[in-house]
Amino acid sequence: MDQDAQYEAVSSRDARFDGEFFFAVATTGIYCRPSCPAVTPRRKNVRFFPSAAAAQSNGFRACRRCRPDAVPGSAAWNARADVVGRAMRMIGDGVVDREGVPGLATRLGYSTRQVQRQLTAEVGAGPVALARAQRAHTARVLLQTTGLPVTEIAFAAGFASVRQFNDTVRQIYARTPSALREEAGARSAGSGVTAAGIPLRLAYRGPYATRETFDLLAAEAVPRVEEVTGEPGARTHRRTLRLPHGSAVVSVDEAAPAHTAARQGWLEARIHLTDLRDLTTAVQRLRRLFDLDADPYAVDERLGADPRLAPLVARTPGLRSPGAADPEECAVRALVGRDGAAGLVETYGKRLDVPCGELTHTFPEPALLTGHPDPRLAALATALADGALRLDAGADRDEATRILAALPGLDEETVDAIRTRALGDPDVGPAAEDTWRPWRSYARRHLAVASARVR
User: Fold this and answer.
1) Residues 88, 178 within the same domain
2) Which tens digits make up the pLDDT trace of 213-239?
3) Residue in 20, 28, 18 with CA at minimum distance from that of residue 60
4) 38 and 118, same structural domain?
5) Among candidates 281, 56, 255, which has minimal Cα distance to 172?
6) Residue that terminates a domain, selected from 35, 52, 69
7) Residue 22 falls inside a structural domain
8) 377 pLDDT exceeds 50?
9) pLDDT of residue 61
C-alpha cells in the first residue's frame, strides 16, 4: 500500500489492516493501529511504519486507547520463505531472547550485519528493536493479568535487568510498570500466578470459522497430550507443550466474546507455565496452531473467485488453516497417525509433574525415539534429534523438504503434510483428494492460494 491508501484505511478505521502497518502522529508522539477510534489526525502530521518496533525506535509511544501492541501479526511473515520472513518468525518464537542476535544470524545462515540490514530495510527495525517490542508486550500482559512481583516479570519477559525493563516500559507506554498494573486493576500478590493460569486474548483479524478449526483439532486429538471438551459452539481445546525452558498446559475457548468491531476479534486463552520465560514462545505457537495471523479477506477473495469454491466461501467465511504447536511432534504424527502417536505418548512421553485432568504427558522429544523399532520413525527422529532436519519457525522450507524426501519410508503425501502443517507453507496441499481426511476442511485454501500465485 502507498501512504495515501494507508491514510484512507486510517480515516475509515479499517481493522483489516491492523498489524499490517502502524501510523504515528507527530504532534502527539503516539502511534496507533489503523482502526484506532480516536479522531483522525491531519495527513500532514501522520507518519507510517511497517512495524510497532519501527514506530518505537522513532520515539513514538503506544496509544493507550487502541493498544497497537496487541494486534495480530502481519500475514506476510507466516507465508514468506525468504530471510526476512524466517527471521520474523524466529524473533516471534523468542530466539533473540534465548540466543541473541548472533544465534538468530547463525540459524539463518547470514552474518549479523546482513540480518540487521535486511530487517531494517523491510520492517523498519533491527532484531534487537523487534525483540524489545515483543518483550515490552509480554511484560504488559504479565503486569496486567498476574500478581507477580515486578522484578520477576522483568526477567520472565526476557529483559536483562530491571533497569532496562523500567526504561523500556516508560518509553513505550509512558507509564511506570506500577502504573500499568494499577490501570488494569491488578495487584501484586507476592509470587506465583492464579490457579486459572495466565489469561490472554489472542487477537485475529476478520471472521474466524471456529467450528471448522475445533472440529479438526477434535478429530486429531491424541489422548493424554490434548483434548477438546464441551459442546460445539462452546468447546475448549486443551493441550500440553514442550517449551525451551519447561512445559505448559494451554487452553483456548471456541466461543468468542462480544467483540468491539466486526472486523476484529480474539480467542480467550489460558496458559499454565512451569517457567514464565516461555510465555512469548507459548503464545506464538498457539497463534500458529490456530492460524491467527492469517488475512481472511485475501483468502476469501481468492477462493471466491473460483466458481467451484465460491459457495464454500459464502457458507464458511474466515476458514483458517491450522498449523502446529510443535513442528517436530507434527512430523512424527504425520508419519505414524493418531493411534500410533497415542502409543508413543504411552511408551515414551514424559509425565507432567502436576497432571491437569486428562492431560498427563508431553509428547516425546525426538531424541527418545531414535531407537524405535520402526526404521521410518527412527530415521525421522534421528534427523530431528541431531539437527540435520530443522522444522522450527525459521527453517528453510526447501531444504527441509529435500531432507524429508530423502528419509526412508516418507512418501510424497507425508512430506506435503509436514511441509503444510509444521512449516506453514501456503503453497502445498494434499496430493490426493482422499489424503488424511481431517485436512479436507482447509486444504482448499492452500490449493486456491497456490493456484492464484501460479496464475
Assistant:
1) yes
2) 999 999 999 999 999 999 999 999 999
3) 28
4) no
5) 56
6) 69
7) yes
8) yes
9) 94
Bridge partners (DSSP) listed for residue 264: 205, 261
Residue 404 in domain? no
- Domain identity same for 8 and 79: no
Rounded Cα distance between 270 and 52, Å, is 25
State how far the Cα of 225 lies from the Cα of 338, in Å rounded to an integer.
Answer: 11
Name the burial class of residue 128, with classes exposed (0-12), middle (13-18) and buried (19+) by CB atoms within 10 angstroms of its CB. Answer: middle
Angle at 69 between CA 423 and CA 79, to 5 degrees: 20
Q: 219 CB contacts (<8 Å, ≥6 apart)?
A: 438
Q: Give the number of other Cβ atoms within 10 Å of residue 80's Cβ.
A: 17
Task: Clarify whether residues 80 and 174 are in a common domain.
Answer: yes
Whether 14 contacts 263, CB under 8 Å:
yes
Cα(381)–Cα(407) distance, rounded to whole angstroms? 10
- Report the domain count for the chain: 2
Q: Which of 381, 300, 275 is nearest to 75 (CA)?
A: 300
pLDDT value for 428: 79
**Grid coordinates of 8:** 484512507
Q: Residue 103 sits in which domain range?
A: 75-145+147-183
Of 177, 130, 175, 172, the closest CA to residue 156 belongs to: 177
Say yes or no: 120 and 175 in one domain. Answer: yes
What pLDDT was estimated at residue 132?
A: 94
The three three-digit cell numbers of residue 404, written as one number: 524429508
Which residue carries 539437527 as its cell? 387
**Is residue 108 included in any domain, yes or no?**
yes
Is 89 found in the same domain as 63?
no
pLDDT at 45: 96
Whole-model pTM over 0.85: yes
Comparing 181-195, 334-348, 363-377, the range with the smallest average pLDDT is 181-195
Residue 131 belongs to domain with CATH number:
1.10.10.60
For the stretch 8-66, pLDDT in tens is 999 999 988 999 999 999 999 999 999 999 999 999 999 999 999 999 999 999 998 99
Q: Are residues 91 and 166 in the same domain?
A: yes
Q: Is 398 within a domain?
A: no
Those residues with Cβ within 8 angstroms of residue 263's Cβ, 6 or more apart along the chain or in another chain: 14, 15, 16, 35, 205, 206
